[in-house]
């Protein structure tokens, strides 16, 4: 079943949970690339997918977030892009097809970690080529759609969508809004919605992932759905924020909090909802139940979100920054283009 | 080319020129910064005054607007690049004239972590504030930090981590410094997306720095305290 058909049939889809933070519990070393497990420990990758399917996910994401040549180069695996991505797709495909219920496989594509021209060194063509190579591997392994996530710059967004679109599958794209309600590179949710709609090949769905906790992410969803009411919006929040407890990192969000997040994200306009870092199968079970039982409510306000999920930063609320320091004199000014 | 591009920096008096440099840093105009540095030097400004009054002050404003969410990473990178253009001219002159040093920092991303955009930003903003910065790059085991400390004798040690699974390594480095009896010789600053103040306290760092601008403010603050201690000793 295609992405569009399944979405039309169910109205709202549950995506899956975290990959990296769940793998660390299975023995992935700090800083090691999870993508190598597609070849070295495929059974562990399959097990995580299975736990998400059993918890009720309609879409599972492949273990290929860092599977572009620029990321893999840091582990001297830049020549294994096709192999690792194809294997990632095959593992997820097999798990998705195990049961009666249709489950979609989305090929996860994260950022290169490079800064694009003109500020940085990576050219548009270089970026596109990296994403094309990854998309080809994922397609060969049998994904239903491609899922670009955690992007922060406009240049990388353009390169990733162009590269992913080249293989003829639907493309979902989410950015990470983690800096005062914007991406690290300064893009606001509303700008992203307008930008995505103006791309030569607009993504079939757009949204937000990761960032700084569930409350801020729902605020971001409000911004995106407000700017483009026709967009199919994705929400994929972290399970709270990381805390350091007795030498170990734990995410603060409980299953109950993530259930509240699902209800608020749904009313804010999201039609594909999942979890990012720290989201376990246990969280997903609660999220599935919340989605099934959900009675549509009014579009939430920022204070509804803060009441349910915790504080939202001032800038993400749309309160303008105070710019006190610069003296606006009458001098002639040259400005950057 | 617009009419505004015709502004002749030579026609500005010192105060106007310094103001213009603040604006040009803000806008990331490297060639204009280089030109203005040369003009001030030709007007017999000391290299130290050019550094502190024009460049460092300009970058301070950039840092404040970055902290407050007005500027973002791309603008700060361009500003830092413009600053660097000026520093290429000033650095040898500062060394020659024996100008006072602001401070020295060794910085690196910890073992297992390969993220460096945030760490690079801190390094650039620290240079922008006049610090000497020794950048160890990514994936640093404790030995790298110890060697660099030995070699460069910094005032400040900075560590960065973007992963929740690599941030505990900062504690390994701090514990090693304690074992060797060196911990109190250096100010240890930590940063990275998943960190917070409680974490910095828990591992025994001197401070958590939320972003590059806060890192600079915190570093200056510690340097001022250090100078006060030396003065009163």
Describe the structure.
The complex is a heterodimer of chains A (337) and B (233). Chain A is an alpha/beta fold. Chain A has a single domain (3-336), classed as Homocysteine-binding-like domain (TIM Barrel, Alpha-Beta Barrel), CATH 3.20.20.330. Chain A has 13 helices and ten strands. Chain A has helices spanning 3-10, 20-25, 37-40, 42-55, 69-73, 81-96, 124-140, 154-165, 189-198, 214-227, 255-267, 281-292, 302-309, and strands at residues 13-14, 59-61, 104-109, 145-151, 171-175, 205-210, 233-237, 242-245, 248-251, 270-275. Chain A has an eight-stranded parallel β-sheet with strand order 1-10-7-6-5-4-3-2. The model of chain A is unreliable at 324-337 (pLDDT under 50). Chain B is of the alpha/beta class. In chain B, strands 2-1-3-4-5 form a five-stranded parallel β-sheet, sandwiched between helices. In chain B, α2 packs parallel to α4 (73-97). The termini of chain B are far apart. At the A-B interface, α2 and β8 of A face α1, α3, α4 and α8 of B.
Salient structural properties:
heterodimer; A: 337 residues; alpha/beta; TIM Barrel; two-stranded antiparallel ribbon; B: 233 residues; five-stranded parallel beta sheet
Alpha-beta classification of chain A: alpha/beta
Integer average pLDDT of chain A: 91
- From N to C, what is the helix and strand string of chain B? HHHHEHEHEHEHEH
Computed Rg of chain B:
19 Å
- Give the count of helical stretches of chain B: 9
**CATH hierarchy class name of chain A:** Alpha Beta
* Biggest sheet architecture of chain B: 5 strands, parallel
Percent in helix of chain B = 55-70%
Tell me the number of structural domains of chain A: 1
Number of H- or I-type helical stretches of chain A: 13
Fraction of residues in β-strands of chain A: 5-15%
